[in-house]
């Protein structure tokens, strides 16, 4: 039975539930919990299908809250009971200002004295502890794989973790963790290193790598593959690798040192199976909390996984750096050669300058100075005087005799 309600209230929705239950011939409620699903219109169909499939194992009242934009506050509802519907399903559509306060509409519709589980199949609040609807539930289920930046989402979940929180990225690892634990029980060797291989942007791979590194106390590397999802986990021992590989998303290859390889069913699970698993427990998942804390430390120390394109880009960068280094080294080697050439070309000029200076000095040494010339001239004059006295003196008495003769005659 499907009952459509437009422009309704929570009281009318409760009355419609009671009327539909009586019409279906089941006035007593046989449900064990309330599953609250918060989604957008585009996620409505898939979320409703997954919740109804999970309700076949866990009879529940499913409250599907669909929030839409609008200026006018409006509340529409759709009640489904019977005809293959497990438990009770109420689709609540809120518009306008009413969508900002959904707890006032949902609270009267919760099953009394039963646990409440809330699930966000898409976008989640930044802080679950401060969300109105999250405060109504004992278990809070998110899905980091459904958002654009899954690793950022997981870090946010780690910062705002509260007992009862869990993520479907961790639920996807249940069978992987079981196989890894069985492998270590079967082959209890000391693990030296480990590696997790998965497609790019897989939050499950980040959680698994962080959890393994925290438990094994060894370095765990994260390698990027084409997928789908998680493709391999390898743990290195002294005798060889303990490896679980799943390249096709269906069958896994399980290998330990010294034993033949075996095939194990490890199919990727649908969202319905994940929600069904999470509804089996109402207590806090302490292992998930430990993995979240380990993820914070792992992302601080581990390098980002490299894709093939990133590796090629890194190789090109390294090649360019080597080429630049070679050119720089060649330029440095050429620089001394040029300086040597310049020095060699300058040497003849230097030698010619020295020769000119020596010639000038020799010429200066051979040419007399002004004082020396004056002294030489004086010496020459002296020499001339020394050479002239004999003739001069010899002539002078003759003259004097000739002159003195008349004088003598006058006196006679």
Automatic annotation (TrEMBL):
InterPro entries named among the record's database cross-references: G6PDH_assembly_OpcA (IPR004555), OpcA_G6PD_C (IPR046802), OpcA_G6PD_N (IPR046801)
> Where on the tree of life does the source sit, at the highest rank?
Bacteria
Which ranges carry the Glucose-6-phosphate dehydrogenase assembly protein OpcA C-terminal domain?
163-292
The Glucose-6-phosphate dehydrogenase assembly protein OpcA N-terminal domain is annotated at 52-158
Q: Where do the TM regions start and end? A: none
The biased composition feature labelled Low complexity covers 302-334, 356-412
Region annotation (Disordered) ranges: 302-412
Compositional bias, Basic residues, is annotated for 335-355
A Pfam family annotated for this UniProt entry: OpcA_G6PD_C
- What PANTHER family does its record include? OXPP CYCLE PROTEIN OPCA-RELATED
Name the UniProt record assigns to this protein: Putative OxPP cycle protein OpcA
Origin organism lineage: Bacteria, Bacillati, Actinomycetota, Actinomycetes, Propionibacteriales
The protein's gene is named opcA
